[in-house]
Specification:
This protein has 13 helices and 5 strands. With 232 residues, the chain is mainly alpha-helical. The strands form 2 sheets. The chain has a 3-stranded parallel sheet, with helices on both faces. A two-stranded antiparallel ribbon has the order 4-5. A hairpin with a 5-residue loop joins strand 4 and strand 5. Helix 2 crosses helix 7.
Length: 232
């Protein structure tokens, strides 16, 4: 049985690597909390980033660190409003560093429950010793093995990729190419070289955003709305 399991795992890992996939980390609450613990450097040593997917993709961390001589602490999240992270850092009396806030208007000014960020802040405050040890072991394995990437290669991930037509009045999530990007240990989202060179994959992603952008007929935030927000 051990031999059978070993052969199966090695074969699956070899197959994924032969397809050109790149090992990355699960961008879960443990990885977020690990990076959150780095915010206590002095202001001239690091800059903390919060926001949504735009800055999580578009920030070039190696270039930033080379030009400024500072470390980057990446705490941004996909589809997330930075206000919860801003509140968490603002209430932390030990944090006295620099903060860059990425504002995506549709997320920043829209009142909504941010379950994913709430989950990360809860983990930061309440994680047990066993959870922390488990997370360290998991990160060590994720740096080596592709097949344990639950966001891409778990059964749930493959089920999410099934192209089932939406029912009337129901809209499912988009299916991004598995070679679109990967997450490094600093939580930066990095587009793969293969995606950057493949116009078909690029069209898949731009078509998704075009479809989502066409779903709403509401205009953007107006000056009157901004005045009311800032007056509070």
């Amino acid at each position: 049985m051990i031999a059978l399991v070993g052969i199966s795992v090695i074969s699956w890992e070899y197959f994924l690597r032969s397809q050109g996939h790149i090992p990355g980390y699960d961008d879960d609450e443990a990885l977020w909390a690990k990076n959150r613990s780095l915010v206590y450097s002095s202001p001239d040593e690091s800059t903390v980033i919060i926001g949504s997917s735009r800055i999580k993709f578009d920030l070039d961390i190696p270039t930033w660190e080379q030009k400024t001589g500072e470390k980057v602490v990446q705490l941004a999240m996909h589809g997330s409003c930075p206000l919860l992270a801003l509140e968490n850092l603002g209430e932390d009396e030990k944090f006295k560093g620099k903060l860059v806030v990425d504002v995506t208007e549709g997320l920043f000014f829209k009142k909504q429950e941010d379950e994913e960020m709430s989950k990360r802040i809860k983990y930061l405050k309440d994680a047990t010793p066993s959870e922390k040890v488990s997370a360290k072991i998991g990160m060590a394995l994720e740096s080596v093995f592709l097949f344990i990437d639950k966001e891409k290669f778990s059964l749930e991930a493959f089920l999410d990729d099934l192209r089932i037509p939406d029912r009337k009045g129901v809209r499912g999530g988009g299916i991004f190419p598995k070679k679109f990007s990967y997450v490094d240990f600093q939580r930066q989202e990095i587009m793969t070289h293969e995606f950057a060179a493949d116009t078909n994959m690029q069209k898949e992603v731009t078509d998704l955003w075009s479809k989502w952008g066409a779903l709403s007929d509401k205009h953007g935030v107006t000056c009157d709305t901004l005045d009311k927000i800032f007056s509070r």
